[in-house]
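Reopening this ticket.

The earlier resolution said the output was attached, but the attachment link was broken on my side. Pasting everything inline this time so it's all in one place.
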Amino acid sequence: MMTPKSDLEIARAAVRRPIAEIAAKLDVPFDSLVPFGHDKAKIDLDYAASLGERPSGKLILVTAINPTPAGEGKTTTTVGLGDGLNRIGKRAAICLREPSLGPCFGMKGGAAGGGYAQVVPMEDINLHFTGDFHAITTAHNLLAAMVDNHLHWGNALGIDPRRVTWRRVMDMNDRALRDIAVGLGGPANGVVRETGFDITVASEIMAIFCLAEDLADLERRLAEIVVGYRFDGRPVTAGDLKADGAMTVLLRQAFAPNLVQTVENNPAFVHGGPFANIAHGCNSMIATKTALKLADYVVTEAGFGADLGAEKFFDIKCRKGGLKPDAAVVVATIRALKMHGGADKAELGKENVEAVARGAANLQRHVENVQSYGVPVVVAINRFLADSAEEIEAVKAACAAFGAEAVLCEHWAKGSAGTEDLANAVVGLVEGGTADFHPIYPDDMPLFDKIRIVAQRIYRADDAIADKHVHDQLAAFEAAGYGNLPVCMAKTQYSFSTDPSARGAPTGFTIPVREVRLSAGAGFVVALTGEIMTMPGLPRHPAAEVIGIGEEGWIEGLF
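Inline output:
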């Protein structure tokens, strides 16, 4: 039997077309591109703004069951569906997030799809790409430097050094930087205080970058960032420090959407990249809205399982951007359903119809949750070679029992030929016109009640709980005029609960909220639950150990 090609080998073998040809598929003129080499470009912001009066295409969300080490293939399915829609004659574009270097060199790997359903150039996209993350990191750390500089030069704003909330960031997993002290070494080095680092994808600037409508909106949101509090308790903003203009300058080029292509030479926008377990998990608003003006169908993804990514896509991104999704795809694999059904990872290659049937409870809960937003759903079974016919039929039967169609997809091995059925099913949902999108809570609901609604209706928890200091902080946010903001739940991606080992569809648990953070510029309140961290660490054997340059000059070990 021939050994299947790796994702990297397939990406390298792909015949990439000049990016101007890809843009021409969406009628984007060459002089509206800012090329980064031959196969990457940014869309000029003035051109993107000129599209405003055009009608919008149909918006399709791809989400998934809770991830497991067995893999789900959400990004791969997003790419495969976009290619499949083009294959059946639809003018379709794909919108993805940019990968973070943290997972690339850590445990998860990159995020450019896989097999014959990838975006290329895969190495560039998974590494430095067009430099957007570096710009976001630099803008964030400029503000941090200006906070400490202000403290050093007399502190005219009366900032309480003990209540500075603005930390620093870097796009790498580094647990040693979670909690640090700055200003050591004497008065010339500034004011001594405790702070720390988060990963760049958890930065409020990343969230702002991905929710802003244009440069003016970007600068306004940056100015509203709360960096800390005065001795009298009043907030201090980036605008108070006069940092917003310089930060906008650093982000100006990065803010323009990136255009690349799939292995099958279809257009893909890859822009922005907040994590869904610690941030809102969606690509940039400007990329999505630009794509919607240029294509008839836009396929986008939201990070991790639907309890995180889809919930935030609906309750934050769609709410803030006035988006109305027309359909959703929930991705599942036989392997992951077996794990949710109690099977051991070492046994996943063996047929286990009973474990698949038990694991379908996780899939059912996600499907029902998405449907509760008024969005019609189809299930995509992302096929692996070891999946048996009986296991596939068990998933289809389970889906039929709870009122959802399940479609077998083979895009990893066959590209768009493996997603024709899914593409036709999505078109059928869209043309059925049954979408009636609505968020699950109103703007004027108290903040903790919003947290409780998500915990009970999406996670199916008995309740959300928090200590007095959390309730006091939320009350202070409401008193300061932030009570109408949505909430962004920071929670493990591996379970509906805060226990990452509780797979399937757990019940009888509560959601403990240990801390809340105001992201005034982004326009939401972050609720940290369980043991979730905003600066991950590397595993015992990080992927970085096997990444390098081979004898022929190619990158090896990247996945």
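Reporter confirms the inline version is readable. The chain has three domains: 7-131+254-432, 137-251, 447-529. Residues 168 and 197 are 5 Å apart (CA to CA).
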